[in-house]
Amino acid sequence: MALWLFVFLAVISLVSALGVIVQRNPVHCLLALVLTILALAVLFIALDATVVGFLQIIVYAGAIMVLFLFVIWLLNLQAETGPTGSLALKFFGTIASAALVAELWSFLLRPHLKVKYVGESASYGTLGALSQKLFTDYLIAFEATSILLLAAIVGAVALARRAPGQRDSRQGSLP
Amino acid sequence: MQELINNIVAAGTFGKMPETLVAAIVIIVLSAVVFLGIAFPFAGIVSWVERRVWARIQSRVGPNRVGPNGFLQWLADGVKHVCKEDVIPTDSDHQLFKIAPYLVVLAFVLPWAVMPFSSSLILADMNVGILYMTSVTAITVVGVLMAGWASNDKWSLIGGIRSAAQIVSYEIPAGLSIFPVVLMTGTLSMQGIIRAQGWAPQHWFLFANPFTFVAANILYVSALAEGNRTPFDLPEAESELVAGFATEYSGMRYLFFFMAEWGNLFIIGAIITTLFLGGWQFPQVSNNAVVMNILQLITFNVKVLFLVFVSMWIRGTLPRVRIDQLMSLCWKYFVPISFVNMIGTAIWVAIWPEGNSVAGYIMFALGIVLAVIFIQRVMYYLRRSRMELYFRPTI
Predict the structure, then answer these.
(1) A77: DSSP letter
(2) B31-51 residue pLDDT tens
(3) A130 and chain B in contact, CB less than 8 A
(4) What CATH number does domain A1-79 carry, 1.20.120.1200, 3.10.450.50, 2.170.150.70, 3.40.50.970?
(5) Which residues does chain A have within 8 Å of residue B139's beta carbon, measured at their own beta carbons?
(6) Tens digits of per-residue pLDDT, B103-118?
């Protein structure tokens, strides 16, 4: 990846990530999040991880973003007019975020993390290489994740299902 | 693409310019030709063709005043929309309101980068071509939701929500219907998928086995639903929502939404043609690369335009579905059938890794029977309708 491309994308993703937490209107925050996701996807693609990059666009910029937006609309979140929360909340929030920053800082400074750029035409990002990894080295984690998602779907269906005798509220309510 | 650049560099047309600069110039010029010469005029011309075809289906005449047979109607509409005032509602979210149409057009423009017009006419033959196509069209939903929300209008908001729910739902059967072909070819590249098929219909993936035949139909219907086409045009249902997410738009911004919608017909057709209808495959009649490429270009476009034409018939014939019908069609029928297709194709590939040619012939014969039944029905209705419109198509 060229340096100028990395700097360009890094600036976009950082600015839009700041936008997610700085803006007051939840929908604006969400759109800033979409921009962050797109910038990250392009970063993945520039690192030759093309499949991951495009899946990021489909899943996050497409589906997850719509889910967030529905939640915002259904909960009817309005733009915040002023700072909310008690003083204690702010106090502990500051401490928690300072701790997180310190932790990240010490982690990123560890010597073995200073990876080098391996060069062009890396084949690790192709669909074949990715599937090879997923279905051999990380098979248990992969299958466990799918079972977790299945459980979530079953749970959602169980919550949405009506009791047998209950009347369908959608029926008969039409004018 | 790379061959073309190498040839140009070898020919020395640009003198001693560095190779990357020549490559950049060639790519920019070709992209400009594709967008200005094909994509945008196509969207315009389709709007005229659709209005004419639609009028024919309803025994009307359609726009026939501007230019020969009304051919220049789309240009007149374009000029009209450019001259109109660009109204931005006071209570709307101005920035988002202005950006939204561009995002929708962006999602229409990006797929052209991997459009396989012929064996060498493709801008970028990525090894994840079809995944790229589905992922960049997913950006449409961002633009539509943005338009619906930023308008600050109930009709727009409901239209945006409907559109988002519809696009996100139908992406699942559409994505799952691509998998059978990927399973059979082992590649995601557009050219790779086309090269795995033959020019003859029995070698197309449409007729490769029963599962791919069903997958092709599911993909076509899902793509129509994703493109907000009738019978799935609930997001802009005129009788209930004025114009859905586009209610508050006027002038060129309004036209952008519809340009993307009409242009998307070509992309839908191109995806189906690439995956299931053999793409640009044409028998090797000449050793001249240019002649072959032109023949392949014509083949590809004929197939795509046929599919565009079919979507116009569907629009002229079928009434709009209800929202619960739309959702149950997707989740109760398309998604389970798509999973069956995937598993069935996987078993088929496990049994016959090289494909089964006998099945191809049988499926092709069945396809011909279906086409004959369809044509018989059409002829039956033609005999009982007003003949003069059909015999004089250029009124």
Answers:
(1) P
(2) 777 777 777 788 888 888 888
(3) no
(4) 1.20.120.1200
(5) 57, 61-62
(6) 888 888 888 888 888 8
